[in-house]
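Everyone, study these two lines:
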Amino acid sequence: MLRQVDTPKASRTATRLLRRKPQLVQEVWKNFLETGGTVTKHDPTMDMSTRTMLPTTPTIVSIIQEFVRLRRQARFRTVAKDVAHFLRPQRILCFHPESDLSTEAALRSIQRVLAKLGYKRGKKKTSLGLR
């Protein structure tokens, strides 16, 4: 359609339709002509824009609430790291525990979700010190 004989400024039209930079459109077109195909990224799932982003679906919210509720009944303190390591085996949250960057990104997303659900951040107990 855009590369027909009488199509004026095909790259500019594609740029406008795709809402991308002209350099990117030209680079992809050049790559397509050289290799005969293009490589696309996998689409994110319906609720997740990135792998470490935790969606706030009702199912996941109830799973987190149940986990925190059980820990409270046993009088265990629950932190974001506990929630992250609980959700990882269930394949709700994907991160690599050996990678510091991946773990910290997952913890940030967990903290965001917990704050959105109304859970408050814990505070360290301060000692009175010597008087």
Remarks:
- DSSP finds five helices and no strands in the chain.
- Residues 56 and 113 are 7 Å apart (CA to CA).
- Residues 1-40 form one domain.
- The chain has two domains: 1-40, 58-116.
